[in-house]
């Protein structure tokens, strides 16, 4: 497993998780209401005060679209420009802190900012950490048939093509196996006795 900057190790998955709350192929919404947004925020350690509003949900969905653009960006320059825009739009506030007995370290999200802004800034910084330490080639959209989930490839040799090797990878392998068997059967039928 590849280690990125300490800032991006967790937050890079924040971007994946938000982008994957909507399946663009099946048009399946996995974040249908503010309560689902609250679950996502809490799962990633974002402190919330009460259930998010419908406006928060709309902002999170807009962020989801912006982050998907990053995963599909044609080059690093475009991806970084998109991420810089997210940082500006969500009021990033770089500052050092030594909370909870930890040594001094960088935070970029204003702790007083709305939860969606905190999530946005952390997710953007996570992806920036990946891109600036190992390059754009780590950001992918799944090659699986009818999938298109986003993921960060943390394999050593950057060989991952599927969001889930166990699901999409196995489906692709099974489909390729069936195609080879059909091809072999057709060759046998077409060859002279």
From TrEMBL:
This is Zinc finger CGNR domain-containing protein. InterPro entries: ABATE, ABATE_dom_sf, Znf_CGNR. Pfam families: ABATE (PF07336), zf-CGNR (PF11706). Residues 138-181 form the Zinc finger CGNR domain. It comes from Streptomyces inusitatus. It comes from the Bacteria.
